[in-house]
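Morning. Coffee machine broken again, so started the prediction first thing and wrote up yesterday's gels while waiting. Chain of 346 residues, entered below exactly as on the submission form.
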Amino acid sequence: MIRLRPRFSLATLLLGVTMACLLAALAATSAKLRQVRAELAAAQAQLAEYRVQFGYVDISDPSKLHAACIPTTTPWLWMWRVYVPAEGRWKLRFQTNQIEPHGFSGDLGGSMPLPPGEGILYARVTRDAKRRLVFRVGQRGGSSCTYGLPDDWLRRNPGWLPEGVFARSGTVVAEPNKPLVLLRFRATREEREKDGTGRVIRAPDGPTDGVLVWITAGSGRKPRSAGGFPLAQPGFGSTITRGGKRCFGALIRPRSVNIVRVSCWPARDFRTDARVIWSAAVLCRFGSIQNGAGPPDSKAARGGSCKQRDTEGGALGWSFDSGGSGHGPDQQTRHCRRSVADARAG
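Came back before lunch.
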């Protein structure tokens, strides 16, 4: 019986060595790929953490409102990075009393138009130069509004319950035709347990003190912007009465920059604070004529003067007397009154 011995040629040896090298390279590549994937996953997790930390807005649909909370370490300061669609008109609305657990009450605190693009909004409870408690809301690098708060506003409430975009992480996208609540910050109450064994902090079912900030569709002239908040804000200011306070809102509109200022103080303090508030005067868009360019005893632009008057609803305002400036005072008064009505309607 003849036995056959296996024979190996040089080509077979080279083929075997090549296959071994390929298998070793494949194993090394697979191990390296697993390492890269692990590093990529860690980097993506860190990136997501940084996005949340710095309030990055992930825009998934340019036709919808987007907002993300920017964490802060300052007490009573809230910040958001928001994206406002180019289509439509949008307003930032805010309220400091009668905050409902859901929805919005009819006692609107105030509003300001928002231009399209991406920017940063903020809201803060602080004290002004006269140590009065105020609520300030606005756009970083743009317009802002200030409202007076009762001195015991913080002391009379044992706790607070935050809701809205501020209480979430990541980007929040608004549903079509629905407002986007940035912050619903309601005061809580201390109640005794039914069995009398202790006390518990609960949020009331009805309206209470707090802060409500939200974005909703607006009306009026569309804000002009080249992609961000620091540019012009359209519209006109007004004086309104809210909850026993007289609020003086205004739009100072130079040719390139618009600044909105709103101040609300108890009605009894309004006259004494007129010299502080007058810098937020209403500008009537008739050339460069200013309506309310100074306190009652000052001279306005182009030889005009400001006169104190009562507007509808009992709020204080200023009327403009052109003093022969070239534009009839009646025409200017109608224009200002229409602007005030538009601001109230918005």
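Residues 39-223 form one domain. Going to sketch it on the whiteboard this afternoon.
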